Amino acid sequence: MQIAVLTFDGFNELDSFVAAAILNRLKGKGWAAHITSPEPEVTSMNGVSVRRQKPLEFAAEADAVLIGSGIRTRDFAADSALLARIRLDPARQLIGAQCSGTLLLAKLGLIGELPACTDLTTKPWVLEAGVRVIDAPFVAHGNVATAGGCLAAQYLASWMIARGASLRDAEEAMHYVAPVGEKSAYVERALAVVRPFLPGSESLAA
Amino acid sequence: MQIAVLTFDGFNELDSFVAAAILNRLKGKGWAAHITSPEPEVTSMNGVSVRRQKPLEFAAEADAVLIGSGIRTRDFAADSALLARIRLDPARQLIGAQCSGTLLLAKLGLIGELPACTDLTTKPWVLEAGVRVIDAPFVAHGNVATAGGCLAAQYLASWMIARGASLRDAEEAMHYVAPVGEKSAYVERALAVVRPFLPGSESLAA
Predict the structure, then answer these.
(1) CB B116 within 8 A of CB B130
(2) Does pTM surpass 0.80?
(3) According to the model, what pLDDT value does residue A203 have?
(4) Which residue segments constitute the domains of chain B, with CATH numbers given?
(5) Least enclosed by CB within 10 Å: which of A11, A102, B80, B99?
């Protein structure tokens, strides 16, 4: 699985890096999560400059795409030239969005009438874009998932691993990154959050 | 509070960025966490190149220092020229180390006989360096704290905020980054982990 982690200027480090680092735990199985940006270098909301690993157009060819969050997302959501560079296909790709990334997903027409997650700061803008926001850390509808609250990035990553590899792989990745002495609790919570949204689960069918 | 987040080549993104992003929630109070590295650019264990915000020598003048983790820490722990560039003063500074960062802290002579935390991969090397490793996500002795497991970075940050600002500030920072719908649980757990190590607590006195 080649995964594009869309990372824009003013990005929130937690959203891009928590997901990418967990997904990269599957390196041994040929997975790679790439920081994917419109410009060769992007600077975070806290002034950290990062060199992109892939250009924005990589999103079209990736097996999975995660849209990160940041303090300038409202500007980007109004930038039709930028949005036109992001070509996603939910029939073929697993797609996730985090916090204000949900706003971009809505502008790309990938949310529609379905309920979505976002963070408390972005919530008014996402509502304004016509999205039904729910008070939950994570939700998925088929191949499209959204998460709210920086550290919910772990759920996006767990879901993507469970969908693209196996639940057992998601468990192992979460076990590795979880705090010592709290590993079982972390793994169990992550699996409980994503399991209802995996194929074959009753909730998914509902 | 000016905080140096020591970040070396091969660094684990979770360890450096989770802590830094949480600490930077206090920007409004004049706090700033800086990615602090020996070279102008460092590349993570997953190939992400980041421009440093401060040189390694900044650690000596910072109010607080966090030592991140990575896949090359064993090399750095054997590099006496590099270690000599890291001048820390636990009498004046709050100092924390995460996962393999605990090995560097031990080499810098700041752990001694006290029990410390680290991750499961680094544990054998830390034991080899003569450190007593405990099966816990976080421990602090006065101004020196250690954490084990990538996502335990949230506890290092919470402790540093509680020590340098207030418990209320730590609560607010954790509330912001926690997943939607799980905010109380995250805040309560973080406070429960760090509270025993704050001045005035009974455990600290013990």
Answers:
(1) no
(2) yes
(3) 52
(4) 2-205 (3.40.50.880)
(5) B80
